[in-house]
Design goal:
This protein is mostly helical. It has two helices and no strands.
């Protein structure tokens, strides 16, 4: 290798390192975006599961409450008390409370699902932001590399002082 080849090797190395830095920045953004998408899809599935679980819990609660109310009615009838007045009011109040409890169970599942869907939305936004940052990193790497390449070209014979001469 001659001294005349050194400037070209330096410029080629600068261009290559610029390309590697730009590609690395892009791939990092892609990996972060893909991870964010995966996390978001998991959260969306968890939200659907939370809704389904709450629906099942509410149905189980409704069945258990219906059984308790049926026992209560049977107890009232077997005691010979008329289903009027206080016993009727107690039954009506118990039925109302059972329905409210069932709705509270469903509501709890909706709250959990909403929280998970909100987190999924934020995760997708993070992924989008990671790609924006990646493209900015690509641009910064290319600009920096262009500057270093121009500096090397200038320093090694493209228009400025020459470190190597043919003397």
């Amino acid at each position: 290798m001659t001294a005349a080849a050194v400037p070209y090797i330096m410029i080629a190395a600068t261009v290559a390192s610029t390309a590697v830095a730009a590609y690395s920045s892009y791939q990092s953004g892609v990996a972060q975006r893909n991870a964010a998408r995966y996390n978001a899809s998991l959260m969306e599935r968890q939200a659907a599961q939370a809704r389904e679980a709450a629906k099942i819990r509410a149905e189980n609660y409704r069945k258990a409450a219906a059984a308790r109310l049926a026992k209560m009615r049977a107890s009232i009838y077997s005691s010979g008390v008329d289903m009027a007045g206080s016993p009727l009011l107690v039954m009506m109040e118990s039925e109302k409370e059972a329905k409210l409890d069932e709705l509270r169970v469903k509501y709890g599942g909706e709250i959990e699902a909403s929280g998970l869907l909100g987190s999924a939305y934020l995760e997708r936004a993070r992924g989008s932001q990671a790609m924006t940052e990646a493209w900015l990193g690509v641009g910064a790497s290319l600009l920096s590399g262009a500057g270093r390449t121009a500096g090397a070209w200038y320093d090694y014979g493209g228009g400025g002082r020459r470190y190597y001469s043919r003397d």
